[in-house]
Amino acid sequence: SQQGEEDPQALSIQEGENATMNCSYKTSINNLQWYRQNSGRGLVHLILIRSNEREKHSGRLRVTLDTSKKSSSLLITASRAADTASYFCATAAYGGATNKLIFGTGTLLAVQP
Amino acid sequence: DGGITQSPKYLFRKEGQNVTLSCEQNLNHDAMYWYRQDPGQGLRLIYYSQIVNDFQKGDIAEGYSVSREKKESFPLTVTSAQKNPTAFYLCASSGWDSVGYTFGSGTRLTVV
Question: Three-class SS of residue A72?
Answer without folding.
Answer: strand
